[in-house]
Design a protein that fits this description.
By secondary structure, the chain is largely without helices or strands. It has one domain (32-206): Pectate Lyase C-like. It has helices spanning 7-22, 172-175, 188-197, and strands at residues 163-164, 185-186. A two-stranded parallel sheet has the order 1-2. The longest helix is centred in the N-terminal third of the chain and has 16 residues, at 7-22. The two termini are 35 Å apart.
Length: 206
């Protein structure tokens, strides 16, 4: 179910965390919001970098402009969350996080860990996923048009009906390691290479 927390307590935790970040750990305390239930919360332009948010419930939360650099979000529930307008999750650990139908358009996710993450119908248009680890992630019906994917690990990722038009930095080598590309949209040149080298990826998964 997750533990509940009062808004006043949340503010105090955030203030202590700001001090902790500003003094590089000399004062204040690192925020620990693991397993807390904060669904539908409005928390804009807040800096919780390096905090422990593992298992947190932020479903349907409005988190535009939030900064979560190197934050522990393992197993977090971000279903339907809004992380827009410069949301920064650089190097965040989102292993096994549920981001179904979340909106991360234009978000920074460079070098983030998204291993086994659920990104079903997630909006990632124009986001930066360069160097991110999306191995074993489910990206079915997600939108990655104009997304940066240079050096992104897509090994065993599930790309079914995924929009990959106009992506930046995506190579045939990366696509060769995915589980499926069934009904996915690709630029003409990449689609041609897939058809020539890995036509099995375009077949309906068994």
């Amino acid at each position: 179910m997750g533990r509940k927390i009062k808004i006043t307590d949340l503010r105090n935790i955030h203030e202590e965390h700001k001090i902790w970040l500003r003094t590089v750990g000399a004062e204040g305390s690192c925020a620990d919001l693991s397993e807390t239930k904060l669904s539908c919360l409005k928390m804009n332009q807040v800096n919780l970098s390096k905090a422990n948010l593992s298992g947190i419930d932020l479903s349907s939360a409005n988190l535009w402009g939030i900064v979560l650099k190197r934050t522990n979000l393992k197993g977090a529930n971000l279903r339907g969350a809004y992380l827009l307008h410069g949301a920064d999750l650089t190097e965040a650990d989102l292993t096994e996080a549920d981001m179904t139908k979340a909106n991360l358009s234009k978000a920074e996710l460079g070098d983030a860990k998204l291993i086994k993450a659920n990104l079903y119908k997630t909006k990632l248009s124009e986001a930066n996923l360069s160097g991110a680890d999306l191995s074993d992630a489910d990206l079915s019906k997600s939108k990655l048009n104009k997304t940066k994917l240079s050096g992104t690990n897509l090994k065993n990722s599930y790309l079914r009906s995924t929009d990959l038009k106009n992506v930046i930095g995506l190579t045939i080598e990366q696509l060769s390691e995915v589980k499926t590309l069934y009904k996915s949209k690709l630029d003409a040149e990449l689609m041609k290479e897939v058809k020539e080298k890995y036509p099995n990826l375009l077949e309906k998964p068994k």
